[in-house]
Design a protein that fits this description.
The complex is a heterodimer of chains A (116) and B (109). Chain A has 116 residues and is mostly beta strands. Chain A has strands at residues 4-7, 10-13, 19-25, 32-38, 45-51, 57-58, 67-73, 76-81, 90-97, 105-107, 111-115. In chain A, the strands form 2 sheets. In chain A, strands 2, 4, 5, 6, 9, 10 and 11 form a 7-stranded mixed sheet that branches. Chain A has a 4-stranded antiparallel sheet with strand order 1-3-8-7, with no helix packed on it. In chain A, strand 9 and strand 10 form a beta hairpin. Chain A starts with a strand and ends with a strand. Chain B has 109 residues and is an all-beta fold. In chain B, the strands form 2 sheets. In chain B, strands 2, 4, 5, 9, 10 and 11 form a 6-stranded mixed sheet that branches. In chain B, strands 1-3-8-7-6 form a 5-stranded antiparallel sheet, with no helix packed on it. In chain B, a hairpin with a 4-residue loop joins strand 7 (60-65) and strand 8 (70-75). Classes of the chains: A mainly beta (116), B mainly beta (109). The interface between A and B is medium-sized, with 18 and 18 residues.
Chain lengths: 116, 109
């Protein structure tokens, strides 16, 4: 299957700082990328959907000014958590989709963010 | 609202068979997915059902009944490595994935 990578796999940052997470589709062109957040023992929560070259569409309750998403190329999307707080500590997972809505999503390995 | 229900936790014995159920109520239906997720890792795709019936893939099978809003994942010949969470997800009328909370499967020797 198609491969999606994320970097870093884990990161610890201090409260008030910003952290950037990269998501790359390695062997396909991801026209659409999705960012999820998962708290312990909970299911995946979609944060936003981004199409290459367009502004991301955020889910209700997700602050777009806090979670900056850039999808500048067909193989790279970034999520920047600005002014991070301990409550932002979570597991962030991206996924990529090559074509339209009928296409499969391929998930990255996730990034564990801990804000101290 | 949209809702996907699956048991929170199940326990089974190595070598046995276990069935994980999933019921859903969504605005439209464009397929149901089962994913496996080990702790601290991203989900990995297991199966996809869009028509009624059973899809078999090795030790794993998935069943769908659209009229009942029901699916199950059947795992045979359980191995210790099958200990994980199993997520049921449905694509709604907007082709958006709606996720269940996951079923944590514990395999005992």
């Amino acid at each position: 299957g198609a491969v999606v990578s994320q970097h870093p796999s884990w990161v610890i940052c201090k409260s008030g700082t910003s952290v950037k997470i990269e998501c790359r589709s390695l062997d396909f062109q991801a026209t659409t990328m999705f960012w999820y957040r998962q708290f312990p023992k909970q299911s995946l929560m979609l944060m936003a959907t981004s199409n290459e070259g367009s502004k991301a569409t955020y889910e209700q309750g997700v602050e777009k000014d806090k979670f900056l998403i850039n999808h500048a190329s067909l193989t790279l999307s970034t999520l920047t958590v600005t002014s991070a707080h301990p409550e932002d500590s979570s597991f962030y997972i991206c996924s990529g989709r090559e074509g339209g809505v009928d296409y499969e999503q391929y998930f990255g390995p996730g990034t564990r963010l801990t804000v101290t | 609202g949209q809702n996907i229900d699956q048991p929170t936790e199940m326990t089974a014995t190595e070598g046995a068979i276990v069935q994980i159920n999933c019921t859903y109520q969504t605005s439209g239906f464009n397929g149901l997915f089962w994913y496996q997720q080990h702790a601290g890792e991203a989900p990995t795709f297991l199966s996809y059902n869009v028509l009624d019936g059973l899809e078999e893939k090795g030790r794993f099978s998935s069943f769908l009944s659209r009229s009942k809003g029901y699916s199950y994942l059947l795992l045979k010949e359980l191995q210790m490595k099958d200990s994980a969470s199993y997520l049921c997800a449905v694509k709604d009328s907007n082709y958006q994935l709606i996720w269940g909370a996951g079923t944590k499967l514990i395999i005992k020797p």
